[in-house]
Amino acid sequence: MTHSPSPPELRLENQICFAVYSAAHAFAQAYRPWLEPMGLTYPQYLVMLLLWERDGRSVNELAQPLQLDSGTLTPLLKRMEKAGFLTRSRDEKDERVTRIHLTDFGQSLMEQARRIPVAMLCQSGMDLNRLTELREQVQDLGKSLRQA
Amino acid sequence: MTHSPSPPELRLENQICFAVYSAAHAFAQAYRPWLEPMGLTYPQYLVMLLLWERDGRSVNELAQPLQLDSGTLTPLLKRMEKAGFLTRSRDEKDERVTRIHLTDFGQSLMEQARRIPVAMLCQSGMDLNRLTELREQVQDLGKSLRQA
DNA sequence: TGACAATATATTGTGCACAACTTAATTGTT
DNA sequence: AACAATTAAGTTGTGCACAATATATTGTCA
């Protein structure tokens, strides 16, 4: 007897999960040339985006929008502190929380980062409207998966 | 002087890269309840999909469709070998290549896996047509990013 | 007030992901 | 045949990602 051939719904190229997984890695690679000169990794860049928008967040106020836990963030933030992007200090009102503040250096990187979005838009090979629509659909998809 | 506020194109919620990154993690989490009973992680499941479709692949014939390198695959395949899903053996014609073959156990898991795609379709909250179209757009996006 | 639950972060251990490098086998050229 | 170039895997080191657990602070309520 021979093996049953794998059905189409089990083929790698038909998996939306893999398309998303693979695109996520492609993004991280595509960002690399812009982030490496700044000394940032891709997840660290995501943290910087949040801090540029609002500084002095707690670990939780980073964890929630990023959908990450302290097990991931704590060592990441320690590396970023060591690299001089930010400082970690105890909140005076509530000694449980750690507050994250950008250093002047970390703050100053925003100017360089401003050029990245346009560059990535070009590399995406899509126009802004299509990309925005795609983003919304992917956000919806993520939301559905998370709450199920 | 005060800090310049971060421009909209640098906000986390407007990044398509983050939407994709976040959805990828959400997928891995959503697959967990189905994969854990089989003893598979999500990346291991991707390898199984390829082997169910065609057994006896070389490491490279896994690496290419997955867009992974041997630095990732070799230890992953060793773990899968240890767990009894597959075997790793030298190709007799070309002693450089390692051939990966499913064990009977590994082959047999396909029956359980057959139920996964429908379950995930439900969790996605989208119909098949919309999901297929979305997959194609995400695949295109990944392709653009990789070649630029 | 004094136990106890809740909250916030940190720690530990495992498994990806990838750059950079190494090792070994094959191919191509002369 | 000799040997450089190529190819295929494997190794090493760093940085995520997350489950499970630990620690410490704050809130609650009997």
TrEMBL record, chains A, B:
<dbReference type="InterPro" id="IPR000835">
    <property type="entry name" value="HTH_MarR-typ"/>
</dbReference>
<feature type="domain" description="HTH marR-type">
    <location>
        <begin position="13"/>
        <end position="148"/>
    </location>
</feature>
<keyword id="KW-0963">Cytoplasm</keyword>
<keyword id="KW-0804">Transcription</keyword>
<dbReference type="GO" id="GO:0006950">
    <property type="term" value="P:response to stress"/>
</dbReference>
<dbReference type="InterPro" id="IPR036388">
    <property type="entry name" value="WH-like_DNA-bd_sf"/>
</dbReference>
<protein>
    <submittedName>
        <fullName>Transcriptional regulator OhrR</fullName>
    </submittedName>
</protein>
<dbReference type="Pfam" id="PF22381">
    <property type="entry name" value="Staph_reg_Sar_Rot"/>
</dbReference>
<keyword id="KW-0805">Transcription regulation</keyword>
<keyword id="KW-0238">DNA-binding</keyword>
<dbReference type="InterPro" id="IPR039422">
    <property type="entry name" value="MarR/SlyA-like"/>
</dbReference>
<dbReference type="GO" id="GO:0003700">
    <property type="term" value="F:DNA-binding transcription factor activity"/>
</dbReference>
<dbReference type="InterPro" id="IPR036390">
    <property type="entry name" value="WH_DNA-bd_sf"/>
</dbReference>
<dbReference type="GO" id="GO:0005737">
    <property type="term" value="C:cytoplasm"/>
</dbReference>
<dbReference type="GO" id="GO:0003677">
    <property type="term" value="F:DNA binding"/>
</dbReference>
<dbReference type="InterPro" id="IPR055166">
    <property type="entry name" value="Transc_reg_Sar_Rot_HTH"/>
</dbReference>
